[in-house]
Design brief:
alpha/beta; Rossmann fold; 8-stranded mixed beta sheet; two-stranded antiparallel sheet
């Protein structure tokens, strides 16, 4: 017996590949910077508008407006291994967007510990939030014809889910209203995570695995996708981005794959905060703001 449980991984190797601290021992320091720099960003820009997109207390979003009228919109989906994170601690890149002339919308939603292990509930919240922002674009000073989505880590996974959503059928919106996605360090097929240590807190089902694996629904994807990952990420997070990029390319979908040399999972997300950073540059270029 080889002891391999997925691809060429043993169970411990697979668990380690979906446990960020094993490959990013400075996780707490970097997450601390997220929070501190988010406070600094709010101190400079002012408090965001806090608006509700749904009926529950968590179903709210933060809007950072640029001074330019009728500006493009970027909806950001935060990460946190599906079980942590909040909009408040993911405002550290707001100055980059606002300064470049874009409105930034940062979503809040339940984590998987609060949904009883369901990623489906989280995906529904995020889709409803995105639809709300599109329908209310004018009220927040945005141009709905220049609508983009970005995300990091598990937020990038949900960004991929949004890309593979049938918006016309499920939300009565134009199928192609999202003009592009910039997704950093995400997961795009849930088979690996389901077999890993993450199944201890996510109640995976066959239906959930299939429905929320964007790589299995390439026919629905009709907007350009930029995929970014760090060279110091876990082997699975590197593979997930590479495999999704190959699948998109083979399906004839526009995709760009960017490898950030010398960055781990948390450090690469920090580069959103500057137009000279790897992810910050990528998302602004996609939005034609640099």
């Amino acid at each position: 017996m080889t002891g391999k449980v997925f691809l060429n991984y043993t169970q411990k190797e697979l668990d380690d590949a979906y446990s960020q601290p094993v490959y990013a021992p400075n996780r707490e320091q970097v997450l601390g910077r997220y929070a501190t720099n988010s406070d600094i960003s709010r101190g400079y820009l002012g408090q965001p508008e806090r608006l509700a997109y749904g009926p529950t207390e968590i179903e709210k979003l933060d809007v950072f407006r640029t001074k330019k009228p009728n500006a493009p919109i970027n909806v950001f989906i935060h990460g946190g291994a599906w079980r942590a994170g909040s909009a408040r601690d993911y405002a550290f890149h707001a100055e980059n967007f606002v300064g470049a002339g874009a409105n930034l919308v940062v979503l809040d939603f339940n984590n998987v510990l609060e949904t009883g292990g369901s990623l489906t509930i989280m995906a529904d919240q995020i889709r409803r939030a995105v639809a709300w922002v599109y329908r209310n674009a004018q009220e927040i000073g945005g141009d709905r014809s220049r609508f983009y989505i970005s995300g990091t880590s598990s937020g990038a996974h949900f960004g991929g889910v949004c890309a593979a959503t049938d918006w016309n059928k499920d939300h009565d919106l134009p199928a192609d209203f999202v003009r592009g996605y910039t997704l950093c360090s995400g997961m795009y097929d849930l088979r690996g995570p389901r077999l890993s240590i993450r199944s201890q807190y996510v109640k995976f089902t066959d239906e959930m695995e299939h429905a929320l694996s964007p790589q299995r629904h390439l026919e629905r994807i009709n907007a350009p996708i930029v995929l970014v990952y760090g060279s110091l990420e876990t082997p699975e997070f590197q593979r997930q981005s590479r495999d999704f990029a190959v699948a998109l390319e083979q399906a004839g979908r526009p995709v760009e794959l960017i490898r950030g040399e010398g960055y781990n999972h948390f450090e690469i997300a920090e580069t959103l905060a500057t137009p000279y950073g790897i992810v910050g540059r990528a998302v602004l270029e996609q939005m034609e703001l640099r």
